[in-house]
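Exercise 7 asks you to align residues with C-alpha cells for two separate proteins.
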Amino acid sequence: MAKVSVIIPVFNESENIDHLVQELNSYFQYETRFSTEVIFVNDGSSDDTMAKLKNAPHHSYSYKLIGFSMNFGSHAALRAGILRAKGDYITFMYADLQDPLTLVSQLYDEMESKGVDITWAFRNSTAVSKTEKLFSSAYAALMRKYAVPNFPKKGFDVVMFSKKVKACLDNNVENNSSIFIQILSLGFKQCGIT
C-alpha cells in the first residue's frame, strides 16, 4: 500500500489543534487507498501548540512532530517536513484547513492515474478584490517570463509530489528560496487539477 506524507506547518495554533486533529482523524479513518503520515512542523510557536500536538489523539494516521527553536517561516518548515517524510507521495496542508482534506485524495488519484511526479491544485475562483487578482496575474506573468516558464497562469495552492522529487529536493537544499518554485523548476512530468 502506498503511503502519503502530509506536512502541516504550525505557528501559534494552540486554539486550532483540537479541531485540526479531529478533522484529520475523521477524514483519514475512511481513506483506504493509502496510509497517511502527518508531519507537524512547529515553527517556533510561543504558545502551547507543541504540547497540544503531543497530547492529541492521533489515531487514523501515523505522525511525527518537528519543533523549531524560533520562527523560521513556512518554507523552512515545509523543507524540514520534506526531509523527514517517508511517503511515496508528499503534500502540504495548513493548520487552518483553508483547503479541504479531500484534496489529498484527489491529488493522489491524479498522480496514480496520470503517472506524473508532480500534481498541482489550482483554485477555480477566490473571493479576492480586483486589485489582488491583478497583482496575482502580474506576479504569475513575471514568474513565467523571468524565472520559471511553466509557472501556472492562475498560480497554485497545493502540490503533491513523488519520492523522486523529494530526493532531488533533499539533495539540493536552497535556503531562503521558495520550495514551490524549486519544485516547478525540477523538470519532472506534472499536471494539475482545479
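Second protein for Exercise 7:
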Amino acid sequence: MRVITLNVNGIRSAERKGLAHWLARTDPWDVVCVQEIKADADDVPRALRAPRRSHAAFFPAARKGYSGVGLYARTKPRFASGFGVPEFDAEGRYLEAHFEHVTIVCLYLPSGSSGPHRQASKFRFLAAFLPHLAQLRASGREILLCGDWNIAHQPIDLRNWRSNQKNSGFLPEERAWLTRVFDELGFVDVFRRLDPRPGQYTWWSNRGQAWANNVGWRIDYQIATPGLAATATATRIYTQRRFSDHAPLIVDYDFDLR
C-alpha cells in the first residue's frame, strides 16, 4: 500500500495550487491523510471530496476556518473521529480509518508557536494523547499515525537546530515526549527507518528564503507499530510542486489493506 500525508494549510488553497490534479495523476495511492483543512465538509472543493473515487471522511474544527483533518482511502474503511478529549476533539485533530488488518490515523498536533497560551494547549494535548497512544499500542492491531506532529525530534530533523532549542517544535519537553512514543511505547518513525540522510524536511517557513535555501523542519511523520513499519519499502518527500508550506510525505508498504 502507498500512504501519503500532507498538511494542506487550507484545502481550498491547496486545490487552487493543483493538489487535486496531482492526486488524480500521481502514482497509485491507497490512503491520503490531510491536515489543517480549514473547512467544513460542505466547503471542501468538489475535486477534493473523493479524488480517484476514494472513500472520504472529514473531521473539521468547530471553529470556522481552523484546523481540521481528512482522510481518503481506496478501500472502504470504518471511520471514527476524535480521541475522547473534548478540548481537542472540538479542534478537529484526530480521525481514524479502521481496515481489516490496520488502523490508520490522520493526526494534527497543536502548534505552540503563536504564544504561551498555545504552547500550554500543546502540552495539555501531549499529556492527554500519550495514554491514548498506549491504548492503541496495547490493542494488538497494526497502527499507522500520519500527520503533522509539530515536533522535530532530533537535530538532524531541522536545519537550524542550535538556534531553535527554546522555540516551540524543538523544545526539550516536546522532544522527550516523542522519544517516549518511540522508546517506551515502541512506535517506529518509518521515514527515518528508511532514510538516515540529513537535509530531509517537510515544512519550510514562508519567511525569507527558507524554501529556496532548504531551511526546513521535518515535523510530518508516518509513525507505525513495529510489524507494519518492518514492511515499509520506500519513502520520499515530494518537492517538485508546492501545495502548501508543507510537502507530501509518501511511504510504500508491502502490506495489503484488504
